[in-house]
User: Which sequence fits this backbone?
């Protein structure tokens, strides 16, 4: 079978590294070009000594021309994606962007959340939001996919798959999420990510003001009446994984059977969603290094509590990106992602 | 000054150890008797090699007669407290019980939460619930104090000190709490507390069904209209500390200034409550090994979010017990607790 | 290409799990039978929710007959291997044993180290010690391979590849090794592997008395004059990885250039040995989840210090087992092991 | 009793913080002046929210004049101690310096180890090396004490207290030490102390080239024939504590009884040295937050292995400094240090 050539722009970060590792085992994609402005000039095996099967590539600067017939993964900061995505799209390449730049449909909300002016808003007409479970058909035909945020995925999916039951939701949904450092920017040299500040510690950050909050509000209720989401992220002394505890107030007593049937009907047909009998079974250990979203739930009176877990670098970033790439290029959706 | 003699029944556990350590530095209490059915016969310095200033005591069996003129701390399992508390009270001793046995005023709720029959319910008339910030005067004159639960303290205090503002609360309050293993029973040999199950992991447990939920409902709204509380505890890969994120829905837009004034008025006069400017400043590191309850808050629309943190072994157990003991015996409330 | 059928006896432990995961990605081996006396009756995906690509197998009891034409991996305790290995060998199957039962050539030393009577000593004539870098040709033709210990591999290889330079060694070699809990038996429910006993802690164990000490002495000096080895293992608050600091006293000043050339000559031709310029570059992070043995060294006067690191579950157990299986069945040695 | 006034120059670092905390509980010392060029202008309770009993002080710049009748603790970098110590000494104040600046008696070795020119060498005549167990009487009469290094203490003491048995030592002594990040400079913002580089990792650093190696060689053999020491430090994913495994080659078979008697004779009279029956009982947990040095040993043939553990911020730094201060000012040596 003919292989599809890919370039990763910004391959030196955590997400780029994760995708590089996944692609190394993929039968149909061939990584031919990687860039990094931090480690350009170095060989990939030198930068990632803990990875295997790696192609024999050297990191290039972002500016170096990408070979012909090569499609693009942007694992770059927002500002770089803003500039590079349109450039590659105009060259006729397919592009998947892992930054937040092309995720929100409302420019005012975007600029409030991301604190910078969006100068390429016209491309929002072309972009498809990359949650396969919700937008599978659109992704298959997209030239341009925006890959969702890690926290956002952990909340959007459990809510969205409630389907028509979402119309019984009354009042704001609370998403109390807890992430390992790799999902919270933890690779930088900032003192707040020093061992002495993370180990044996725990704290909330960006309370009700994280940029994934509007992303959740935008996609969790697609096809239903929109509701407010109140989102608080927390930093765990853990490397990878996000667990979200989601409190959903209904307008009437929640029927446990009805919820179970709805969630099960989705879990049975989705290769990367697993439903457990109880919320206590959901834990980071079960999803780390996998592309699964695990969910469990409990009801009490009018309240539904869903606990979800995913690996922020896989289903929350590079894994979901590969799931999208498989769809964009006509390969089996689970290829290279080890779903059961 | 004359010293007050104390015995700790069940001094071999984590809470007993913490209180033993605090008392070793206290000028007015003298620990004269310690019991443990696990390590009886051993010397205290042998059992706690990491503690200092310890009195030269040997662990006794629970059955050994406590010396005269000695008051009692019960750091025992529920079943032992149920039997021992009345026995010591009838001998005229003052008793503080750190178990959950005498915390709930409603017997039906108690038996549902604790799953055993309460055969000493008549003593509930005599007992005082030991949160000094709420029941200081009663504690001063009590013969029998029931020390609150660690999770419960982390939620009751932040809500209760809202005072009359609690009457604007509409609908259930959500308490999403995260605890280190020492607050979640983590000393036992169970496989779920093995290193390989806790490290790099995170999970919820007893979702909406923890025995501290009714305790919160009972005391968070004293003097105001009662509200439902929905409580989910989680297990952190951390040894000590509890951080609770509390979502409070109001019937109208919350006035940030009003909340701040109310909380500040309490924090200014309470030696162990610290109010921070933002909820992002609250973290386990600041409260570990202290008797402080730290709080910060944020408002958005009709919702108030309070983040609280405490050390589960101090303000959540042994520290608060010593605060109560100081009150019960007429000593300065902060003695031996190092408040500023 | 025809696939080779394998059974793992004792697949429910950490080593069995690791090998199951590796085999799931291997093109030439097909896992057809797994046993576990702890989780028999359960499906593999239920027991290992964090693994992917798993075959659809159910754990059997050890006693269940292994299908014909199926070769055997023993990931069993010593006592089980002692009984099962001869049984399978007599059936004409190839067997690789991951226990310590068939590693030592001297029965007296064996029984002193392992504290039980070896009743199958005649099989020691047939067994090959499974370090491919030392015994590659023998392994290719072996029916029966004994896979080395994790600590043992981390010390034997760095010493053995010194080749003829070993004849300049004077006096005992000191191996000071530090292992994560998965290499030290850390899955059991023993209190010493509880989170509260491992986290923020560090200790030595079996000082100069670990059963891998005679294993090191036996194989580190093959082809050279034997020397005494003094071995102390320590327990790290880490899940996987072993780092060994090896102090080797020479009879004359060590020539750094000579050491480097010798080690480099080996590293250049061995797919799983990586030589770094300095010992400070060796770290657990670089070898975790890989089959590499990383080494670096420093000399001072008559002393050579080698720092080595490996993943105890891969190069220290299941990875090395697969390396041996590849050799035993004529497949490329690195297949399924992701070497560069 | 009259209190002795103290100033801590450089009180904002980990060691300064530890000493500040210890002094807050000390009946005879009164901390009257603290400096820090990082946090000057801030109140001490704001900088150390997790400490209690703190005096109400504001951090000053280093240049601010220290009040009269106030003695000096230097918890400053080497360059600052080099300048400040002579200045304060000339003012007639007593000075204890926690840096490495005045520890080595040989200027050439000092400048090789510390990589800067020592311009105040004349003060080496006045300084006393502050290990109380070795130099108690000199410390009592000293105006100027140099507090030992943390690694150095963990090796010097176990060797030195062997007394005349040291004359049977043949060849180099190997000190393989493992430290938590607070003993290895782990507060800085360097990427090597980021959570992602320390957690689940382990590595050696400064192999055979750490500046504490000559310090060990200088003081471990006082009163005996000097021997070479080979020292390798390692970084643990732990916050506090050092465990050293010390391999001592004797010229003849070591007599376990003789070692035990010698070590016990010291441990019985020294308040901060504890001898355990086996080296496996030595662990970081037992010494954290204490001023104890714990030791255990094992012999095999001509080799003696001693395992020692201490808290690098207490017996390895601030605790030992307070032990020295008690001696310098005529207070009971264990005052404020909680020895049993």
Assistant:
């Amino acid at each position: 079978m003919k292989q599809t050539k890919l370039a990763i722009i910004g391959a030196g970060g955590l997400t780029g590294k994760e995708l590089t590792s996944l692609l190394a085992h993929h039968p149909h994609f061939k990584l031919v070009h990687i860039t990094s402005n931090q480690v350009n000039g170095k060989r990939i095996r030198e930068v990632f000594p803990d990875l295997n099967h790696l192609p024999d590539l050297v990191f290039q600067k972002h500016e170096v021309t990408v070979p012909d017939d090569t499609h693009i993964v942007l694992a770059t900061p927002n500002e770089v994606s803003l500039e590079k995505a349109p450039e590659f799209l105009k060259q006729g390449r397919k592009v998947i962007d892992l930054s937040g730049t092309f995720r929100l449909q409302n420019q005012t909300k975007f600029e409030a959340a991301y604190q910078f002016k969006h100068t390429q808003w016209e491309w929002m007409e072309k972009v498809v939001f990359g949650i396969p479970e919700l937008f599978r058909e659109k992704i298959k035909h997209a030239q341009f996919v925006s890959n969702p945020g890690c926290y956002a995925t952990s909340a959007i999916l459990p809510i969205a798959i409630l389907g028509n039951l979402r119309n019984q939701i009354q009042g704001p949904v609370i998403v109390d999420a807890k992430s390992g450092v790799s999902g919270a920017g933890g690779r930088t040299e900032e003192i707040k990510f020093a061992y002495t500040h993370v180990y044996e510690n725990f704290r909330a950050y960006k309370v009700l003001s994280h940029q994934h909050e509007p992303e959740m509000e935008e996609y969790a209720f697609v096809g239903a009446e929109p509701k407010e989401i109140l989102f608080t992220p927390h930093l765990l002394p853990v490397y990878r994984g996000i667990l979200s505890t989601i409190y959903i107030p209904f307008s009437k007593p929640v029927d446990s059977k009805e919820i179970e049937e709805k969630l099960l009907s989705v879990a049975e047909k989705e290769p990367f969603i697993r439903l457990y009998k109880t919320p206590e079974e959901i834990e980071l250990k079960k999803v780390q290094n996998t592309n699964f979203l695990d969910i469990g739930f409990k009801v009490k009176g009018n309240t539904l509590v869903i606990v979800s877990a995913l690996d922020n670098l896989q289903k929350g970033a590079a894994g979901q990106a590969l799931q999208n790439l498989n769809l964009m290029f006509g390969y089996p959706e689970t290829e290279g992602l080890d779903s059961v």
Q: What stands out?
A: The mean pLDDT of chain C is 94. The CA atoms of residues 253 and 302 of chain C lie 4 Å apart.
